[in-house]
Write a structure and sequence with these properties.
heterodimer; A: about 190 residues; alpha+beta; 60s Ribosomal Protein L30, Chain: A; four-stranded mixed β-sheet; about 50% helix; B: about 425 residues; mainly beta; Rossmann fold; Neuraminidase; six-stranded mixed β-sheet; five-stranded antiparallel β-sheet; 31 strands
Chain lengths: ~190, ~425
């Protein structure tokens, strides 16, 4: 019994210390990461825009099936990221989605699965619905840019399949995503 | 910290031994109350050969202590228990600090164990009741939970929920090796058994009102679908696989219908499925997210989450065809309501400063914050209404927590490896 009491104390103490120490450090850390992520995102956006221009987007014939594997092609981008609790497509993802739409319109047999995901903030069943909403938003943009309905399948996994596991703003930002998965390439 | 509250912290620390393949949960009382009732549970006399298959008195004492309402006195401090109820001497137990005493004997008999036990009110110097329970010899633990229910009800007048079970989702491994299992365990986390395993996510388990079946969402076909599974036989049926999401199934109290959230028409709405015919009735019609339905005990009202106002909040709607009324205003969001068995309150997940559980009194509309975690989700009321079990995290790991209805007693159920989440308490 004495050992149990001692362990009880240690657990209690540890829990109390952890509870007291955690929030401040997390807040500063989250802020720093958010700033870093924003900077990286901005650079990435500029790079993609330049790339999209260089690829001559909108010029039929430039997007062969090989460009799906070409790291220089906007078609290599398969991830759309979202703000917290939002299904709004951020402008930096439009060129990439236009490229996929163009590819799909040129390859009528090609099909993609749009897999919506969320972070862990929010209740699980609500997040399943939010993930679907994000995938539907991507589908709308691709529809408007020439992809046909039967080429686009919307699926939601909600918060069930995270790619980043830390409880930080950075990890959450990575998990709030739609993945574009080619089921049939041409 | 006084001696008694120190004990209620520590007595609950149990290591539970159970089946190999399933997650074993370790239960800890992390916050108890002062003024818990001191109870002595004397070791039960074993009349068979060798040593008894289970330490029933220990299980009963631990069950009582975990409610936070009792303080089970350490065995070393107890006087020798009388062999018969007639030998009860109140003075020796009151001087040991006990206000109540439980004594018992166990006798093996043709594959069963007959448990005889007695409950005494030490201060009133009287026997409150004597009971006999037969338990299958290989299920003596369940017998111990039934003894706990009877002792609890004899002393408090409230029904116990120790015989109830919990279903939950256990997750092990990472990346492509991630495995999900739907497990069912005793109310103290012992005897976990995997009902279904998948390398794709499982979510939203709920019990049928007769405790024989579970419904849940499985992604085994790479999309959300609703399945029903018999707990004893393991037989499974797919109930809903409509276009879009198939989510949040929950049984009507009479067991004939299932409320769920389907997005077959574009956005998630609440539907009710007649289980005999499979016929669907659409309950809500919005372009918003309507999900997480929960029934009132009389089956006349559905509570659900909707973001029709811009943020997720909880609404109530009379059946059939009432107008949804918003119930929650306190947090930046609200969802995943669970209804108390008496139908008088909801416990839900309140967003704002993290995700925390709050209780809403449906008559007074008064709210009480129950937990202080950052990710407290998926609450489920115990069938006697005394506690709520929920998902929470501990340094990034998914564990289960439980909190008494008044928010004063907190426990944690943690597996040794992996994560557990989305607990659902069975009916009694």
């Amino acid at each position: 019994m004495h050992a149990v009491i001692r362990w009880g104390f240690i657990l209690l103490l540890a829990a109390t210390l952890a509870a007291c120490a955690q929030p401040k450090r997390d807040a500063a850390e989250a802020e720093r990461r958010a700033a870093e992520a924003a900077a990286a995102e901005e650079a990435e956006r500029a790079r993609r825009e330049a790339e999209a221009r260089a690829q001559g987007l909108g010029m039929p014939g430039t997007l062969s099936v090989d460009s799906l594997d070409d790291p220089q092609s906007p078609l290599s981008g398969r991830l759309v990221y979202f703000e917290y609790d939002s299904d709004t497509i951020r402008p930096e993802f439009i060129p990439m989605l236009e490229a996929h739409s163009l590819y799909l319109s040129q390859n009528p047999n090609a099909r993609v699965r749009l897999e919506g995901h969320t972070d862990e903030r929010g209740t699980r069943e609500y997040n399943l619905a939010l993930g679907e909403r994000r995938a539907q938003a991507v589908r709308r943009v691709m529809n408007l840019n020439g992809a046909r309905d039967n080429q686009l399948e919307v699926i939601s996994f909600g918060e069930e399949m995270p790619v980043a596991f830390a409880q930080t703003e950075d990890a959450w930002a990575q998990n709030r995503r739609v993945e574009i998965v080619y089921e049939v390439r041409r | 910290m006084n001696r008694r509250s120190l004990q209620s912290w520590c007595l609950g620390v149990l290591l539970l031994v159970a089946g190999q393949a399933s997650a074993v949960l370790e239960v800890t009382v992390t916050e108890g109350i002062t003024g818990a009732i001191p109870v002595a549970v004397a070791p039960f006399v074993w009349e068979g050969a060798g040593s008894p298959p289970e330490d029933v008195a220990q299980i009963v004492g631990a069950n009582l202590a975990r409610t936070g309402r009792f303080d089970a006195l350490a065995r070393e401090r107890l006087p020798r228990a009388p062999d018969t109820p007639e030998g009860f001497l109140a003075e020796s137990w009151s001087s040991a600090g006990a206000e109540y005493l439980v004594i018992g004997r166990m006798r093996p008999q043709e594959g069963r164990v007959v448990i005889d036990f007695h409950v005494f009110d030490v201060l009133a110097n009287q026997r409150m009741g004597g009971f006999r329970i037969p338990a299958p010899a290989d299920q003596l633990r369940r017998g111990a939970h039934r003894v706990s229910d009877i002792v609890f009800e004899t002393i408090t007048g409230d029904r116990g929920a120790f015989s109830a079970r919990i279903a939950y989702v256990a997750v092990t491994g990472q990346g492509d090796d991630r495995r999900h299992a739907l497990e069912v365990a005793d109310s103290d986390g012992a005897n976990p058994r995997a009902m279904f395993r998948s390398n794709q996510p499982l979510m939203s388990p709920e019990w049928s009102p007769d405790g024989r079946d579970l419904v849940y969402v499985s992604f085994e076909n790479r999309r959300s679908e609703i399945f029903r599974q018999n707990v004893e036989t393991g037989a499974r049926t797919r109930l809903a696989s409509f276009p879009g999401i198939n989510s949040a199934p929950t049984w009507s109290p009479d067991g004939t219908r299932l409320a769920m959230s389907l997005s077959r028409d574009g956005s998630p709405n609440i539907y009710v499925m007649d289980l005999a015919t499979g016929a669907l009735t659409q309950i809500t019609r919005t372009n918003a997210i309507d999900t997480e339905p929960a029934w009132s005990p009389d089956g006349q009202t559905l509570y659900f989450t909707s973001d029709r106002s811009g943020s997720a909040q909880i609404y109530q709607m009379r059946l059939p065809g009432g107008t949804p009324q918003r119930l929650t205003y306190e947090g930046t969001s609200a969802g995943a309501a669970t209804v108390s068995p008496d139908g008088k309150s909801l416990v839900y997940v309140r967003g704002g400063d993290g995700l925390r559980l709050a209780r809403l009194d449906l008559e007074t509309r008064r709210e009480t914050l129950l937990t202080r975690g950052r990710f407290d989700k998926s609450p489920s009321f115990a069938p006697n209404g005394s506690m709520v079990i929920y998902s929470t995290t501990d340094r990034g790991r998914g564990i289960l927590g439980s909190v008494s209805r008044d928010g004063r007693v907190h426990q944690r159920f943690a597996p040794r490896t992996g994560d557990v989440r989305e607990p659902a308490w069975s009916p009694l």
